[in-house]
Amino acid sequence: MKRTPHMTAPSYRWIDYRSPDLAPPEDMVVILPVGSTEQHGRHMPVGTDIHLAEAVALEAAAQATIPVRVLPPVWISLAEHHMDRPGTLTLDMATLDALITGIAKALDRQKVKRLLLLNSHGGNRNALPVIADKLTRDLTMNVAYSTYWETAMAELTPLLEGQKMLHHACEAETSMILHLKPETVAMEKLADADVPATVPPQGLHLWRPFSAMTESGAYGRPDLASADKGAKMIETAGKVVGAKLSDPANWRY
């Protein structure tokens, strides 16, 4: 069908719908993107994780075979390990828990049966599964959790040239932001990243600030980033997450 000027592509954003259109069918999934406001080296915006969480969520909604709606992203979370760098904001665990729990309870009252906490920030990887488990136990809906690059690691790795996984303000994140918001990237600083000064011990967790690993605030190979690579990464991650959402077996317990 030929698209007329007043027609737009379908929206998956919760806030773009009118109230009667948000009465959820049984199989609808609501995605809550969970990002962070934090330093991303000298070349990347502090809102990187917010943009990436929403972009992957919207791509997953487009790729899914069931109805999916995407909430506005959570823009602040657990970023204590970046607080010694300008621009970083953080919550404590209790506040993040209360924020996500409040959103989930509201959705539960609206008869939403499936919620995905879609994470884009490494500092949330311990907290969000615990919150999701608690909410599934306490509410009448199933609450799932995914960190997008872990869920799609096998598919994303072949797209990278200089690293085997997503790091921080790296080849992967810089590529995706070059695709989404190229005006926010300081191109002249793409080579200004370094490898970790220390390697975390294996089998032993010890908190340390990110500055203990990298002087520049970035870790990876942003000099290998490209907008084309970023577009492929967002599409790939969205396709994998969308397939996970669409499989009814993933919502049974």
Q: For the residues shown, what is the average pLDDT? A: 92
Q: Spell out the helices and strands N to C.
A: EHEHEHEHHHH
Sheet with the most strands: spatial strand order:
2-1-3-4
The amount of helix comes to 25-40%
Ends apart, CA distance between termini: 42 Å
Question: Which topology does CATH recognise?
Answer: Rossmann fold
Largest sheet: 4 strands, parallel
Classify the secondary structure makeup into a structural class: alpha/beta
The CATH class designation is Alpha Beta
Number of beta-strand segments: 4
- Supply Rg: 18 Å
- CATH 2nd-level architecture: 3-Layer(aba) Sandwich
Number of domains: 1
- The H-level CATH homologous superfamily, spelled out, is Creatininase
Oligomer: single chain
**Tally of individual helices:** 7
Low-confidence stretches: 1-8
How much of the sequence is in beta strands? Answer: 5-15%
